[in-house]
Amino acid sequence: MGDAELPGHLIFALDGSLNRVPTAALRGPKGGYLGLERDLGETPSGTFLVSGMKPRPTASFPKDILAFADPVFSTEDERVDARPASKRAAGDKTLQQLYFATELKALKRIVPANRLTVLKGFEAVPSALRKMPVAQYAFLYFSTHSIIDERYPERSRIVLSLVADATGTPVDGNLHPADLARLTLNGSTAVLSTCESALGKMVDGEGLAGFTQSFFAAGASQLVMSLSKVDAGASAQFFDTFYSSVVGRKPQTVEHALRLARGRLAGDPQFGDPYYWSSFFVVGRPVLSDEIRRDF
Fold first, then answer.
1. Host H or E run for residue 293
2. What backbone torsions phi and psi does residue 246 show, to the nearest 5 degrees?
3. Is 80 exceeded by the pLDDT of residue 290?
4. Are residues 160 and 86 in contact, defined by beta-carbon separation less than 8 angstroms?
5. Does a structural domain hold residue 172?
6. Are 57 and 251 in contact (CB under 8 A)?
7. With b meaning 16 or more CB within 10 Å and e meaning fewer, what string describes 235-274?
8. pLDDT in tens, 39-75
């Protein structure tokens, strides 16, 4: 099949170690990157294409985005006031603060205030997530650290704030797969702007066990994840374009929005290398047109 004959939307059902391959960086028959020339998606299995939760248009949700960003990871954070020595060890000082000023500014520019909720700093804790009506949001967005345990995937965690307030009070800010599975989503898309969020233990017939299965069990239709370390500057530009595309005046599918975001970075002299733009991908049930259904 020549490059011109490839459909505009490619769906990968990968197995084994192929789940670690950034499909966006693969070359087509004529040498171009697939992730820049085609809309790409991945599915956990062939049956998920018809049995998985169907993606819903963003406009069908009461709200667009629920974002958790810039958590406080330890009492070494400057947002924590002077504290007694007994509280100095609260949190995990090995986790560096991530700066999201540009990313959050972009979200507020793109999304109307009445359709956006941002919880950051001390507010970005699991208890806040549990109290939110998450099923009302089209996108559940985590911009933080994630830690994958490939031997025991149930110990993997998305790290939210580990400090509850400015006095340095410790709090369990870890979201484990079991916690995610208990959420109530309704065809939403979960976005993990975290390092190596797609990795996990290899499970025959199901790919990499980690956060994926938990979000689908909670009712997510699609997940945007990363296969490698995330560069903060590249990520900010990437998600600026991504969210402008999926919640803009003419909303695009997640697959096409990712393609547009890759294209923006690929044209940037600083972030043009595939390392910066090929890691993010979407897994789940795609939006299938009649033409794609016939090709499949």
1. helix 290-295
2. -85, -25
3. no
4. no
5. yes
6. yes
7. bbbbbbbbbbbbbeeebbbbbbbbbbbbbbbbeeeebeeb
8. 999 988 888 888 889 999 999 999 999 999 989 999 8
Q: Give the model's confidence band at 141: pLDDT under 50 very low, under 70 low, under 90 confident, else very high.
A: very high
Q: Is residue 128 part of a domain?
A: yes
Q: Which residue, among 233, 217, 183, 214, has the nearest Cα to 225 in the 3D structure?
A: 214
State the Cα torsion 99-100-101-103 to the nearest 10°: 150
Global pTM reads 0.87
* Number of domains making up the chain: 1
For residue 286, give both structure tokens.
């795609």
Q: Give me the amino acid identity at 22.
A: P
Ordered alpha helix ranges (H), 195-289? 212-218, 232-246, 254-266, 274-277
| DSSP E strand stretches across the chain | 9-12, 39-42, 63-71, 116-121, 137-143, 145-147, 157-159, 174-175, 189-192, 201-203, 207-209, 222-226, 280-284
The order of strands in the sheet holding 157-159 is: 145-147, 157-159, 174-175
DSSP state of 59: G
Answer left, alpha or beta for residue 219, where phi above 0 means left and psi between -120 and 50 means alpha.
left
Q: Which two tokens stand for residue 202?
A: 């290899």
Task: Find all residues with CB under 8 Å of 236, minimum gap 6, and list them.
Answer: 100, 102, 103, 106
CATH number at residue 85: 3.40.50
Q: Which two tokens stand for residue 122?
A: 């001390």
| Distance, CA of 166 to CA of 180 (rounded, Å) | 27
Range of the domain at 144: 62-230
Examine residue 147 and state whether it is found in any structural domain, yes or no: yes
DSSP 102: H
Q: Is residue 146 part of a domain?
A: yes
- Judge whether 45 and 132 are in contact, CB under 8 Å: no
